[in-house]
Amino acid sequence: MAGRIALRAGASARPTLNDNVSKCRHASGDTARFRCFGRCRPPLPLFAARFPVTDLPTRPPLADNWFAQAQSLCSAGHYAPALHIVERAIDAPLAPSAHAHAHNIAGLCLLAMHRTDEAETHWRACIALAPDFADAYTNLGTLLRAVGRGAEIEPLYRAWHDAHPDDVDARAALAGVLRENKQLDAALALYEHAHAARPDDAEIAFGLARTLHDQGKLADAEHAYRAVLKLNPGHRRTPIRLANVLKDLGRLPEALRAYQLALKLEPNNADTLREMADALRLSGMAREAEKACLLALTIRAEDPRTLNTFAAVLTALKRLGEAESACRRAIHLRPDYAEAHFNLGLVLTARGGLADAADAYREAHRLRPDVAEVQNSLGCVLRDLERLDEAADVFRDALARHPDFERAAYNLGNVLKALGDFAGSEAAYRQAIGTRANYPEARFGLATLLLSQGRFDEAWPLYESRYDHAEFIHHATRKLIRCAHWQGEPLAGKSLLLWQEDGLGDMLQFGRYFPMLEALGASRVVFACMPALRRLVAGVEGIDAVVDHQEALANAKDFDYWTSPLSLPLHLRASIDDPRANACYLHVEPALAESWRARLASLSPGPRVGLVWKGNPRHHNDAHRSLSSLATLAPLANLPNLRFVSLQKGTGQEEAVTPPPAWAARGAPIEALAAEIGDLADTAAIIATLDLVISVDTAVVHLAASLGKPCWVLLPDHDVDWRWMHGREDTPWYPETVRLFRRQPGETWDSVVERVRAACVETFAA
For the segment 673-691, what is each residue's pLDDT rounded down to a tens digit? Predict the structure, then answer.
């Protein structure tokens, strides 16, 4: 996903890496604001303050005017004359409180003149004279931050608070620095006390809201930000943060309204435009998001955060080259910007540059090792690069840092399963589910693992979680079909719609259970499927009619129930070797069989072998389970007594027409039939004339096995489908017909084919 990195603090905290500029008066990380006088008043312009004279003595006669004169000079930028006046006041025989005021103004003047050491001296003198002088503490704290001595601020404010525990300003100031230092529980306690003492103070309420936000207590933060706006509807810093909370809560329309309010208060606020652009992107309005980003960049052209958000927007618009440029520009401006490195990794992943993406994620992790999402993305890229051991280590480290990060646990389960560590994989899946019980991806991953181990009773209920998986192609099926979803209720006298939901092979494998529905007394069973299956299954026992999906949807209300063939073992309580479910349940229509028998009569005498070397190119594991070319099967071409027939349909079928040299050199080259095959019924009729099928993992395997024909399957060394289980050369799904040739880790396909060739020699020796 292109966008923000979620910072995981506990189970639900989700602040982003690029914190918004803080302007909270009591937050120690605030934009620099220096104060002359006042206790929690609304911020005054720099150096502008009202100077009370009631504390001054009436003599010398000119003393009453000194502070007023100094204020006027400061406001005009004449700091040296103003400093001269307050220095006279410091030397004059005035009351300690007046001397404190003079030291505070002197500090302001000296800071403006870049004489920070002297400014610090005056503010410390002010505090010594008036230990409860709030502005001196806050001004000194801001100076310390400006000169890189931020670590000294907490002790300063803590001393202030300890000396005056009932001083609300001291309490709020300490809360602010504790919040900045990530001591959120302590900060919250102080803010709550300060807020209770001064409930109408919008700045304290704002600090309380920010702390709740930082803790990831989004609902509480929303309530607190709304309370600030009730106290001060024009509080400029609140609407953008309220909008950010609503965005993190997924309430995007409300967030966009809050951003609009923020823009009314500050029309040219680039931060608000940037955050609104991100909300627009998340709302699917990438074009509007682009406009908001461009407007923000006209205000602040070289802002790394806006460039980073712009990159996410461009990614959503599929303009990946521009997105990469925006990321790299943000990184050039701010090399330590972890989120930009992360987004660069996302863009590079989308562009297929996985190795470079891994480097970008590693740099993001180096800069922000506390962000779990970075490690998760790094682990996924390493997995895609097939560096599985490294990926597992990354996921393990992510879980060590964030034990509740369920996606890392799920991804670790996938990687360990691919590595053959099934016990570790199961533990990881269960950890993910333990963190989030309704986690469909993890439940489905555990289901397929258990199925691959033959633990069917526990697996089938978990396998139903596929309907909750947002990326499952039939995720919305339950909402589309207007009849009840069958959960195993009695079928006597009831009509049932069977819905093909997945690949052709799955449907063929589970078709063995169709006759059991009729045996349960179903009055009518209709199968909705792809056109390629219609002729083949029309004569299957237990099926009354075959329709396409559109017709099924149009008439779904006429059925009592619907279900998928993949759910039948669960609801029928059928075991894998249930005698009611015959694995060899398919039959070829006699006329069609005779037609194809006549078509192939011209083949020379000898055993006939059907070949399939490529599967569906859209399958997620096609790169591993398909052979690169018919040429990979060249060792079989050297078996002169065999007659080969191509069952390849779709990608790769042209190789049978114009075969590679090893096949072309045969006296009887491979028979190419793809142009004549209309559907799976044709393929089944061809298989019925053969002695053996040799295939990679495709629907043809299930078709041959369900016809009762011997079939040898070439299985990859990576991500083997659950139905073929582990470490065995046969399968309980097709015990009489299927033989498995597994590619071992590090083994080449050429080596596997040599084993197949040897088996052919042995099988057809006569």
Answer: 999 999 999 999 999 999 9
Q: Are residues 523 and 627 in the same domain?
A: no
- What pLDDT is recorded for position 235? 96
One domain, residues 632 and 718: yes
Percent of the chain clearing pLDDT 90 (strictly above): 77
DSSP code of residue 47: T
* 299 located within any domain: no
Domain that holds residue 177: 63-289
Q: Which of 537, 572, 607 is the last residue of a domain?
A: 572
Q: Are 657 and 644 in contact (CB under 8 A)?
A: no
Q: Is residue 276 part of a domain?
A: yes
3-state class of 140 per DSSP? helix
**Tokens encoding 603:** 């083949």
The CATH code of the domain that includes 635 is 3.40.50.2000
Of 243, 258, 289, the position where a domain reaches its end is 289
Burial (0-12, 13-18, 19+ Cβ within 10 Å), 149: middle
- Give DSSP secondary structure letters for 341-378: HHHHHHHHHHTT-HHHHHHHHHHHHHH-TT-HHHHHHH
Mean pLDDT to the nearest integer, 581-607: 94
Distance separating alpha carbons of residues 344 and 364, to the nearest angstrom: 9
Beta bridge partners of 299: none
Least confident of 193-202, 474-483, 591-600: 474-483
Copy the structure tokens of residue 230.
């009730």
pTM: 0.80
Is residue 673 one of the residues assigned to a domain?
A: yes
